[in-house]
Amino acid sequence: SRAKRYSRIGLEYEDIFQQASLLFILAVYDYKERPPTTFAGYIKKRIDWGLWVYYRKYLKQQIEIPYGLKIGN
Predict the structure, then answer these.
(1) Which of 2, 3, 43, 68 would you label with 52, given CA atoms 20 to 30 Å apart?
(2) What's residue 68's pLDDT?
(3) Where are the domains of the chain?
(4) What Gene Ontology terms describe what this protein does at the molecular function level (predicted)?
(5) For 10-65, what is each residue's pLDDT tens digit?
(6) Cα–chain-centroid distance for residue 54?
(7) How much is the pLDDT for 70?
(8) What SS3 string covers the chain?
């Protein structure tokens, strides 16, 4: 599962699972039927992208903490 993959690279399994659940709910509400994209394909891409963004924010935070940096906002 996606949660297992991200937990192996440092994130907590429960945090990833919760984030994926929230992304799924948002994707269901945001989905609009477009002929070449199926519902399942849209959901998969939306969750993959959302977890990638979540992981990038985690990495950025891990870099900032030891060096006392404030990157971005």
Answers:
(1) 68
(2) 64
(3) 2-67
(4) DNA-binding transcription factor activity
(5) 778 788 888 888 999 998 998 888 888 888 999 999 999 999 998 888 888 777 76
(6) 4
(7) 61
(8) CHHHHHHHCCCCHHHHHHHHHHHHHHHHHHCCCECCECHHHHHHHHHHHHHHHHHHHHHHHHHHHHHCCCCCC
Given CA atoms 38, 44, 49, 50 in this order, what sign does their dihedral have?
Answer: positive
Tokens of 15: 């945090």
Write the CB contacts of 28 (distance below 8 Å, at least 6 apart in sequence): 43
pTM above 0.85, yes or no: no
| Residue appearing with tokens 């949660």 | 3
